[in-house]
Amino acid sequence: MSEYFKLLYNELFKIYVRKSTWAMYAVLTLLIIAPAVLILSFDDMQKEYTDNWREELQKENEEYQKDMAEMEESPGDFVEEYNSQTIAKNNYYLENDIKPLNYGAWTFTLENAGLVSVVSLLTIIIGAGIISNEYRWGTIKLLLIRPISRTKILLSKLTSVFLFALCTMIFLFLISLLTGAIFFGFEGMNPYYVVQTAEGFEHVRIVNEIFSEYGYKVVNLVMMTTLAFMISTIFKNSSLAIGIGIFLLLGGNMVVGIFSQYEWAKYILFANIDLKQYETGNVWIEGMTLGFSITMLMIYFVVFVVLSWLVFNKRDVAGH
Amino acid sequence: MSQIALELKDVQKTINKKEIIKGVSLTVRQGEVYGFIGPNGAGKTTTIRMIVGLMKPTGGDIKILGKSIQHDYKEAAQNVGAIVENPELYPFMTGMQNLKHFARMYQGITRERIEEVVSLVGLEKAIHTKVRKYSLGMRQRLGIAQAILHKPKVLILDEPTNGLDPAGMREVREYIRRLADEEQVAVVISSHLLSEIELICDRIGIIKHGEIITERYVNEDDSDAVEKKIKVVIDVNEPEDAMNVLKSMEVDVVQEGKQLIVQLQREEIPPVVKTLVEHHISIYGVTGIKATLEEQFLELTGGNVIE
Ligand SMILES: Nc1ncnc2c1ncn2[C@@H]1O[C@H](COP(=O)(O)OP(=O)(O)OP(=O)(O)O)[C@@H](O)[C@H]1O
Ligand SMILES: [Mg+2]
């Protein structure tokens, strides 16, 4: 076991000793702080409710209704939907006598769930390089002549890619929370928050919401990283793997869209990646269940890993 | 005789239907330095890749201390250290970080051992510099350091002196000799530099077109030279007188300044010298020149032509 830890240490060391990795973290930090600065400069994006919040909410609702009445002639679907949703939400606050949560570190962190895609992108880059770089540097020869099976080396590499993802997720979470606290203040240790679900509005802990938002996106991270890892292991080419990985990370939904009229579309990986569809009740293809999707995801994951393993174990290490 | 450390039995490798290695068999004993010579493309690196487990042979077997590299990979690889082709290490890490990285892939390599190896290859000053900034010779030294870190019983070096300066070459040569003599390590060295090989090896094998065409002990050629004429250089002060004496003895002789180059059989040397002395010619030196390995090599391989 300690042998495996030493391998993990080696792999993580090689990831974190390089300046390009730290450049990634710098970019991620910038992507967290820049929106905070923007939000701060647009005052009205962070509503502050005082003790008089009941009247403030009612006034807000009236304004929204006036807005919608004025726009009757040229109805913008998006604006109308947003307004009526906000009104409904405000009414929920009033009916249940809940004071809305002011904007702060937790809300900011929740909004940063979108940045999980950036973490996915960085992880794909790391995952696509972790084997092909050894070929590019020529160090694969020195790595594979040790008394350690290729299987173990492959697994330690895949594991360390996921450890990198974990560290980066924690980094995203902590820096978001810190930036949010500095720019907007702290809402308290474990505040509640109102969310919209399939059954209407619900009052939940914001921390749970953050974990589920981040969590749903991690599924895509894991699947696309494993796919990129497999492609780069098979083709010894990181650019190809990064390209395909990122394209499918962002455009996987499209693939499902194209084939959605067919019954077999539910077996496509990308139809199963968004597990949030089962929470919102907005299931893509009829007949799909959470259990089905999780099974499909596990099958795909195992296939990716087994294919990488077969190729990596069998292959002769010859010239570049 | 000491124990067999490395054994190749009829090893074959076919890539894309092309036979690259056509049944190579060889054994290297503990404490023996084996030179692996051949022209470009002969199959040296391919054979070495199979010995260290980077490539799988399509036929035959390779054993390290009796353990098959294919069937008992872990036990076999435990006892092998190697440089394969260029010494490529992680350029963004220091020499020390590279060594520690590889040390972590074995059990029980201490800090002291790493430092010992660093001073053995003479890299103390540069060990905390990034490998990116190393010269070829420095990388070669680091390559040797990582190969011997775990005290392997079989050391495989593919062109280890490539890029080293004369002093560096001598150090490596002495170090390899010491490993073989004192720690009974079996060493396989491939090289184009035949003069290098001749100086460190106990035995050489010449490979061409994926076959070992001859194998011999380095100081063996004296015995089969009994029939052959050897070049002998005789240093004298009165070359003309000596020429006359030698011509009267009907030997093959050429004059080069004050040196006479004579083609003689081994037993003919003492009578020739005796005759010269009897004719009052002062002799300052008699040197026999062996045909160098280089010449034999070219003779055997038909020149350095890649076919
Ligand atoms: N991966 C490969 N695929 C196909 N042929 C190969 C491969 N690797 C080597 N060869 C061929 O095998 C032969 C032997 O190559 P090898 O590298 O073993 O030669 P070498 O003796 O090490 O030569 P050099 O002195 O130039 O280093 C060459 O003809 C080469 O073209
Ligand atoms: Mg070679």
TrEMBL record, chain A:
One Pfam match: ABC2_membrane_2
Instruction: Tell me the keywords, alphabetical order.
Output: Membrane, Transmembrane, Transmembrane helix
Membrane spanning residue stretches? 21-42, 113-132, 153-186, 214-235, 242-262, 290-312
Keyword Membrane tagged:
yes
Name of the protein in question? ABC-2 type transport system permease protein
GO molecular function terms noted in the UniProt entry: ABC-type transporter activity
- Gene Ontology CC, one term: plasma membrane
Automatic annotation (TrEMBL), chain B:
Query: Is Nucleus one of the keywords UniProt gives this record?
Result: no
Q: Name one GO molecular function term.
A: ATP hydrolysis activity
**Presence of the UniProt keyword Nucleotide-binding in the record:** yes
Task: Identify the residues that the record assigns to the ABC transporter domain, covering every copy.
Answer: 6-234
For this UniProt record, the keywords arranged alphabetically read as follows: ATP-binding, Nucleotide-binding, Transport
Write out the coiled-coil annotation as residue ranges: none
- Note the InterPro entries from the entry: AAA+_ATPase, ABC_transporter-like_ATP-bd, ABC_transporter-like_CS, P-loop_NTPase
Stored Gene3D superfamilies = P-loop containing nucleotide triphosphate hydrolases (3.40.50.300)
Pfam family membership, one = ABC_tran
Concerning its family, UniProt says: Belongs to the ABC transporter superfamily.
> What protein name applies here?
ABC-2 type transport system ATP-binding protein
Provenance organism: Melghiribacillus thermohalophilus
